[in-house]
Structure prediction request, 493 residues.
Amino acid sequence: MATAHRTSAASRLSRRLVVGLIATALVGAGTIATAPVAVAAADEPADKPKIVVVATGGTLAGKAAGRDTYTNYRAGTYPMSDLVAVLQPEVSAFADVEVVQFGNSGSGGYTFPQYHDLTIAVEDALRDADGVVVTTGTDTMEEFAYWLDLTVQSKKPVVITGAMRPWAAGDTASDSMVLGTDGPANLLQSIRLAASQETFCFGTVLSLNDEVHAARDVTKTNSTRNDTFATRLSGMLGWIDGSDVVINRAPARVLDCETNDWFTPFDLRAVSRDAYPRVEIFYNAQAAGGESISAWAAAGVKGVVTAGTGAGGISGAAGQARTAAARDQGVWFVSTTRTGSGSVSGGSGNIIPGGDLLPQKARILLILSRAFTGDVEQARTWFSTLGAPTFDSSALADVVSPTPVAEPEPTVEPTPEPSPSESAGTGAGDPPASASPVPSASETPAAVVGALPFTGGGAPGLAALVAGLALALGVVLYWQHQRRLSAQRGLIH
Ligand code: ASP
Prediction:
């Protein structure tokens, strides 16, 4: 069942990739902007995709004190199987849903060994499923999301969701549902998004309030509003209107979809669940003291992210404490800004620039970096590559025409009508006099290109152009991958 869908999704993806790569080449933009791909009815899977909901709790599974109470509730109360039951029969129209109850508590209650286990649970589910939806509390959802984005070793869709209002106030999830709860809609739409396969190769995305955001960039911006999640610098990836999933941007890693470069070095099966060291965040402010940094270093903390003012500045006292901790205890520091957006650069030795990563996202990458390497230069490379993915289309300038290219004329002659004698042959058992069982050299290339499923057989000129562009892009992307591999050689296990 799932296989039939995957086959269809894979062919859809490869068409979409070709369209996306060509769009990127022609537009030279920082994001892939493609129109939603129409898929012929015959292309549709007969079976529904299998989606596993890996539930961890949060407000989504919360029980409220009353139907009109949004802020007084106990998070992580109802089991996910009961929540999915409320979505029936509607959800079964587009997905076969299975549930893994990983935990049931507030998002802040999870430890890094549990994060490790969560990644393994998601990877296990993705072995058979077409996509996974992870539910969690919204307070640290952006950290859950970026952790999964950096660690899950599967290109299948991973969607994280939750709710800002508790689900119900009764003894069961279908009893006394909270007035205006956003939980059921967020869960339904996230399953729809995962089932659509529209975010295949995107890594983890966050879906809430009908919006879709990249895990690396999204942040919680309001303590109580339903529209709390935002991607400040780049905007959302898309949205879901009713049953219409609209994705019109993509994380840069999608360009590596067809190669192993897509995967991060953080394969958690290579480390123990206790491998993650303590990393803290120092929040700078006017005339801030440096005692917290010194105390953390003395307590064995291995890394500190500084949320500096402006472009990453910290106070004189904090700066002195940082110098001492880096020198005496080998603490690694990552500089970020407390402004909520914008980049931080510079730094040497044990001080790594966090780019435009938010402090809480930089902390996740620093924890993983410290677990996977003892080499601060390796970590610096990861922050500037994995931590700062960008589209690099500069190499295309050498191989792709910046202006429209004339389409070559079709070269295939119309097939002549067979004459009666040709149809009849020259005698019993003889082949027709002019029959040619093998296409001649002159007619083969255009005919074959014209028959490619992507281009259709009716436009061989366009087909040849597209095939040529795809070939050129393949060469460029291969060259880029080789370049990237040599840059990272010896750094990735
Ligand atoms: N306190 C809750 C949590 O993060 C809030 C939520 O679920 O939105 O688990």
The chain has a mean pLDDT of 82.
